[in-house]
Amino acid sequence: ETAKQPKPDWIRIKLTTGENYQDIKGMMRSKTLHTVCEEARCPNIYECWANRTATFMILGDICTRACRFCAVNTGMPTELDLQEPERVAEAAEGMNLRHCVVTSVARDDLKDGGAKIFAETVAAIRRRLPLCSVEVLIPDFLGDRGSLQIVMDSNPDILNHNIETVERMSDRVRAKAKYRRSLELLRQAKEMKPTIPTKSSIMLGVGEEWDEILQAMDDLRAVDCDILTLGQYLQPSPQHLDVVKYYPPEEFARLKEEGLKRGFSHVEAGPLVRSSYHAHEQVQSAEKT
Ligand code: SF4
Ligand code: SF4
After folding, report:
1. What ligand has the least distance to the C-alpha of 174?
2. 70 touches ligand 1 (CB under 6 Å)
C-alpha cells in the first residue's frame, strides 16, 4: 500500500465564467438535462461550455460495471428511454453546440449494448445541428462486432474508446473490461471506416510505470489510433482507487512529445485533461490529416 499523496498546486479549478457558459447553464437548468460535465464536476466546464462543447451521458446513469476509478453508480440499469436520442439532440440544439460528445454507461444487460440508441442519437443531432461535430465515447460492447458496426454506420466525426490504463493495471482498475479487447475494438473501428478518426485515453497516477505508458501508446498506434488524451486520475471518493502519483505538467509535456513522435495526429495531455477536453480542436486537426 502506498501512502496518501497530497494534492499538488497544479490541480486547481480554473474559475472563469464566460457568456456562453452562463447561457448554457441557464438552458440546462430549465430543461433538467444531465451532462457529464456537471455530474462529474469536471474542472474544465467553464472552458468547454464557453467553447460550446459538452458531453452527454445516455442509456441511464446506472452502470452494469464497477470500475474502481469511476464515480458512476453500479446496479440494475433503468429501462431504455427510446425518446432519449431526440431529447439529447434538442438539448444540443438549445446549447447551440459546435462539438457534442455522446457517451454512456456500460449496458452489458442489453443485447446490442445500447448501440442503436448511440446511432439514433448521432442521427438526431445531425438533423437538428448539421454543423455540429459529434464524437461518440463508447463502451466495449463486450467485444460484439455487430454493435460496433451499428455505431460506425452512423458516421460519427470521432470514435472514442478509452483503454484507461496500461495493460498490467487493467484488471485492477476496470475489472470487467479487457485491455486487448479495447484495442481490438479500436482496430475494428478503423477497419470498418478508415476515414473516421479513432481516439483513446489513458488516465495517469494509478500505479503505472513510465515505460508502460509508452508501451500503451505503441499498442494504440499499432491499431492506428489517431488521437490520444492523457490526464491525471483524481480519486472521486475515499472508496475509490488511491492516487499513487500526481504527474507534474512537465511530465505531461514530455509524454505529449512521445505521443507526437509516435504519429498520433493530436495529443492532449495535462493534469486536468479529460477525454472530451478540447475535442472540437481535435476534429479540426483530424480533418487536416
Ligand atoms: Fe464536459 Fe468533457 Fe469538457 Fe469536462 S472535458 S467539461 S466532461 S466536455
Ligand atoms: Fe464507469 Fe464506464 Fe466503468 Fe461503468 S464502465 S463503471 S461508467 S468507467
Report:
1. 2
2. no
Domains of the chain: 19-288 (3.20.20.70)
Report the atom number in ligand 1 closest to the C-alpha of 42. Answer: 4
Query: What would the pLDDT profile of 201-247 be if each residue is shown by its tens digit?
Result: 999 999 999 999 999 999 999 999 999 999 999 888 899 999 999 99
224 within 8 A of 190, measured Cβ to Cβ: yes
For the CA of 101, the closest atom of ligand 1 is 8
Distance CA 139, CA 152 (A): 13
Distance CA 189, CA 223 (A): 10
Cα(first)–Cα(last) distance of the chain, in Å? 45
Question: Which stretches of the chain drop beneath a pLDDT of 70?
Answer: 1-3, 12-20, 22-33, 284-289
Ligand 1 centroid to residue 273 C-alpha, Å: 9
> 1 CA to middle of ligand 1, Å?
32
